[in-house]
Amino acid sequence: MRAYTSYEPLTEYVLRCADNTLVLGHRISEWCGHGPILEQDIALTNMALDLLGQSRMYLKYAAELLGHEETEDSVAFLRDAMQFRNSLLVEQPNGDFAHTIVRSLIFDSFHYFFSEQLIRSKDQQLADIAAKSLKEITYHRKFSSEWSIRLGDGTEESNRRMQTAIDDLWRYKGELLTPDEIDNEMKEKGIGVDLNLIAPSVDNYLSQVLSRANLQLPQDEFMQKGGKQGLHSEHLGYILAELQFMQRAYPGLNW
Amino acid sequence: MSESSMLEKFEDKIKREVKIEPREWMPDAYRKTLVRQISQHAHSEIVGMLPEANWITRAPSMRRKVALLAKVQDEAGHGLYLYSAAETLGTSRKEMVDDLLSGKAKYSSIFNYPTITWADIGAIGWLVDGAAIMNQVPLCRTSYGPYARAMVRICKEESFHQRQGYEIMLTLAQGSEEQKAMAQDALDRWWWPSLMMFGPSDKDSKHSAQSMAWKIKRKSNDELRQNFVDATVPQARLIGLTIPDPDLKWNEERGSYDFGEIDWEEFWNVVKGNGPCNKQRLDARNKAHEEGRWVREAALAFAEKQAKRKSEKEQVA
User: Fold this and answer.
1) Do residues A105 and A42 touch, judged by C-beta distance below 8 A?
2) Which of A35, A52, A215, B114 has the smallest CB count inside 10 Å?
3) Does the beta-carbon distance from B179 to A96 stay under 8 Å?
4) Tens of pLDDT along A197-224?
5) A74: CB partners within 8 A, 6+ apart
6) ipTM reported for the complex surpasses 0.90
7) Structure confidence by residue, pLDDT tens digits, A73-113
8) B44: Cβ–Cβ under 8 A, 6 or more apart, which residues?
9) Chain A with chain B: Cβ pairs closer than 8 A
10) Predicted TM-score of the model (pTM)
11) What's the fold here for domain A9-249?
12) Which residues contact A63 (CB under 8 A, 6 or more apart)?
């Protein structure tokens, strides 16, 4: 599996972090003004803000590593789909509230254990960003876990919708926890996180939440992959069409 | 105490600028007027999220995106504490929201206009939030305590939004020809609807006189509209934009700007539901409400289960 652009391993790694938070922040921001309850509209917007704020730190670092005259905006707005390094999970559509919650539950569970380890990175910038983000990520994980339990253990309908969302999205979990060459190289250099180390914690956490929520772990073990290497689903192109519209329509201007 | 002596006590408080608080006696019409006004205000915050949220996913830079998202979130927060203020008068949030969704309750007509380009986000911040501040600053002294206190907090945030919107316009006005044209076009489209935000002219405003007497309202519609024009015209000039009003000119004698006649036919048309986006806005609110129904039902069912589990546990213990 190859992407048509390859970056230095550290840049690849930083872009994965930047794009996961950018794309999920974008998706969650689509809820703003349309949430099921006003309080939850505010909470979702909070999470989108946190994620985009985290993304900006990673984007700035990526811009610095890329050199030339790259900025957070050129990195966010002027790369095409194959140059994005987010996991497939975060680009999946919002669907109903159940899909949004389950997508966040899976991502937040990963993101929490990942960032907890990233704080120990030998790369000071990554360690600092992770340290700054962990409190927010802890809150996100609490929110998505509590809502998973509430909806899983709510009504028959909410339980059915949650189970459907889990069955639909579970296949995107594997990519988050399965190391590739970049992950291995970064881990060996003491920069990146050992995904094999955090995988059992993530799985354990998820099965605890699902069990409290009266939800079943999917039996099908097949996992989709490709996002973090730059091979995406059809959804990402539409996200970029919106995200990048202004910078593409009016190149090189100050806003 | 007889009704007439309670009324006397109430009117005395109004006279002495003592705030009326939730549990105190108040005339039914005062209560009704406040519920109408505060809930309309809350609905305006909620519906007002829609035209701005329309640009969150397309904001031109990361900095602008985050600022816009935070701004729209502030509006949601304003809606929340205005609903709470109205609830202190004995009307539930559910009743108020139902009235919005059925089209019975009104909200500010300004949000029935579309946000077509990025410059509209600047124009809304500058003009719409600017007009809102003109309306709302006097409301910090309104006679009903919870409303006055909510307004203090809201005004602080609105003035931040207004500066942010003006700064977007300034950036565009200093930019490329395309950006300047975008800014001027947005001003052209938002100017008159912004003036309409102050409501009908004093002579045609059916609720104004009583509201002034109760000190719910502290300044008249026309007075506020004039203040807004006087404050905004120099701001437009400063960044090289032209107010779309050929009759606009400085009146030395009054120390104010004279301005052209508002198209009241358009105003009443939008109030009656015929604005460019009335249907779209109400549909969006109804859609969110309908699609959120199962979530609210599930949250309620879960809370009941939890309460039952807790009480069973306590019985065993």
Assistant:
1) no
2) B114
3) no
4) 999 999 999 999 999 999 999 987 789 9
5) A63
6) yes
7) 999 999 999 999 999 999 999 999 999 999 999 999 999 99
8) B107, B108, B111
9) 134
10) 0.95
11) Ferritin (1.20.1260)
12) A70, A71, A72, A74, A75
